[in-house]
Amino acid sequence: MSARKSERLLNLLIALLSTRRYLTKHELREMIEGYRGGTVASFERQFERDKEELRQLGVPIETGANTADTDEEYGYRINRADFELPPLAFSAEELAALGVAAQVWQDSVAATHTAQAIEALQAGGAAPDPALLPTVHPRIAVRDANFEAAYEAVTTRRELSFGYAGRPRRVQPWKLIQRRGQWYVFGLDPDRGEDRFFKLSRFTAAAEPTGRVGAVVVPDDADERAARLEPVVGVEAVVALRDGVPHSWPEAEPADWAGPLPAGFTAHRVRQGNEDLVIDEVAAAGADAILLAPEDLRRRLIARLRGMAG
Amino acid sequence: MRSEAQVARLLRLVPYLTAHQGVTVTETASVFGTTPRQILKDLEVLQFCGLPGGLYDDLFDVDIEGAREDGHIFFRNADVLARPLRLRPAEAAGLLAALRVVVEVAGESAAARSALDKLEAAVGREGDRLTVALAAGDAGHRAVLRAAVAAGTAVVLRYRTPGRPGVSEAVVEPARLHVVDGYTYLDAWSRVRGAWRSFRLDRVEAVEATTEPAGEHGDPPAGWFEDAPVHLTLLLDPSARWVSEYYPTTAVAERPEGLSVTFPVASTDWATSLLLRLGGRVRAVSDPAIEAAARSRAAAALAHYPEDLLG
C-alpha cells in the first residue's frame, strides 16, 4: 500500500521537523498512527527502513540524546535550518535565465534531476520563465551510455567501477567534466594512488557505482587538480597547423621545428590518447594539418591518405 | 507510483499549494510533470498528514471534494512544511551546470550570473560536481549577435570553414545562440542561401552590426542537425562502432557486410572530415558526391608530403 507508506513517511518527517528535542523510536510509535498495531519487532524494522528512505530523499535526520546521561536512549530529529531550502528571491530576468537553464539538458539523467531542482524552486515560490530570454538556446545532449552511472557516483560520492581498455578499473569520482563535447570522470584512481581523467566514451565495460554513499571525500582543490592534469595523455606528436584555422587540439603548444614548412603553417606539439587517434585527427583536418613527427605515424598517415585519394 | 517518488513530490507540493491558494489541479500537474489524477491521489494522502496528535486541527486542511468539482485546490494549516526541502546534490549539480552554460553563452547577462550566485550560495559545494567547458567563441562577437537578435537586424559575418582556405563573408539574420556538445552555434537566416544555417562561433572571425531589418522567416528548426538536408549512410568495419555512439545518428543497423550507420549531415566539410578520420574502416559510402569530396581533400592533404611522390 504505497499511499499509506507515503502518508507514514510524511508524518514521520513532520514529527521530526516539529520537535526541538530528540524523539525516541518509541515516542514516535506513539505519535504516528501508521506505526501503531503490529509487534515491536516489526515496528522497529519498519522504522529503520523509513528512516533510511527519508535519508535517501536527502532529508537530514540527526541522531542524539537530550541529556548527557549515557543511559538515555538515542532519539531523532530534523534540524529545520538543514532541511529547508533557504529563501531565494529572483528577479524576472533571473527567472528567465533559470527557465533557459531548465531546458539545457536533453534526455539524460541530468535533465531529470534538473527538472526536479526547478520543481523545488517553484515550490519555494519562484516561477522560471524561458519565454523572457528567447535569444539564448544552449542544449547539451549526452550520448555516453555510462553517463547515468557516473552522474550518480559523483553526486552521491560513491566509488565507480568500470572497464577501461578491457581491464576492470575504479575511480573515486570528484567531478564529471565535459570538454570539447567529451565527458570525463575525474578523481582518484585508488589502485595507482594518483589523480586522473577517464573518458566515458572509452569505457569498455558498463560502469556501476560501488561502495558506500558519501564515502568519497572530494578535496577542496579538485578544480585546480583537474586543471593541472591534461585529460588526454599518451602519444605526443608534432603537427604543422595552418595559421588562423580552428583545429581540434585546443591545448596544442607551438613547437620548434627545424625542417621546412609551407608558408602559413606553424609547428605545434599535440597529445592524443593513442597513435591511431593522432592519425585520425590529422587526417580529419585535411590540408590544414601536416603530421611532422614521429616518422612512423607520418608514414601511416600518408598510407591512409593515399588509400583514400584513390 | 513508487512511494519514494511520491514523498519527494509531496515535500514540494505542500509549500507550492500553500503559496498558490486556488491553483488548478491541471496547472499543478504541469508544474510537477505528472497527471491531474496523480495530483488528486497526492491530495488524498496529504489529508491524513500533519502535526502529530491526529486531532482535526493538527492535520493539513485540504478540500478534496472542492478540487474534484471545480478543479481549484485550497490548502491550509501546513506551516510546518512552509519551505521545500533543499536541493539534493544530484539536482543541484544538474541545474547549476546548466545555469553556468547559460551564463557562458549569455555573456554579460547580469541576470544569469546573479541567479547563479544566489543558487551557489544556497546549495554550497555540492552543486559543483558537474562542469561543462564550452568553446563559446569571442565574447564581443556574442554581444553583437545578441544585440542583433534583440533588435531584429542583420549582421555581416566573416567566418572560416575547415578545409577551405581564407575567410567567407555572408550577410545573415541572427535568430539565436545555442550549444551542442560543447560548441556554441549561431542559428541565422543566410540571405545568400535563402535558408537557415548554423555557424560555429569559435570559427567566426568578425561580426559587424548593420541597421538592415531582418525578414520574416518563422522560427529556426529546433535542432542543429534536424535541418540537415542531407543524410549520409556509411557501411563500417566493426572496429569503427564508436562513431555510432559519438555522433548524432538517425539509424544504426547490423548487417552481414558491416555496421550501417546513417548520420544527419549539417555540412559537407563535416562529412568529409568524418570519412578522412575513419579511413579504411569505411566499407561503403551512400553519397558519391561526399565520397568524391573526401577523395579530393585526401589528395590535397597528400600534396604536403613530398616523400609521397617517391612512393
UniProtKB/TrEMBL annotation, chain A:
WYL domain mapped to chain residues: 146-206
Pfam families linked to this entry: WYL (PF13280)
PROSITE patterns: WYL (PS52050)
Cross-referenced InterPro entries: CBASS_pafABC_assoc_protein, WYL_dom
PANTHER family assigned to the protein according to its UniProt record, in alphabetical order: PROTEIN PAFB, PTHR34580
Protein name: WYL domain-containing protein
Species, as recorded: Tessaracoccus lapidicaptus
Organism placement in taxonomy: Bacteria, Bacillati, Actinomycetota, Actinomycetes, Propionibacteriales
TrEMBL record, chain B:
Domain PafC HTH positions: 6-121
Pfam families to which the protein is assigned, alphabetical: HTH_PafC, WCX, WYL
Protein name as catalogued: Uncharacterized protein
PROSITE patterns linked: WYL
Occurrences of domain WCX (ranges): 229-302
Organism lineage string: Bacteria, Bacillati, Actinomycetota, Actinomycetes, Propionibacteriales
Domain of life: Bacteria
WYL domain residues: 143-208
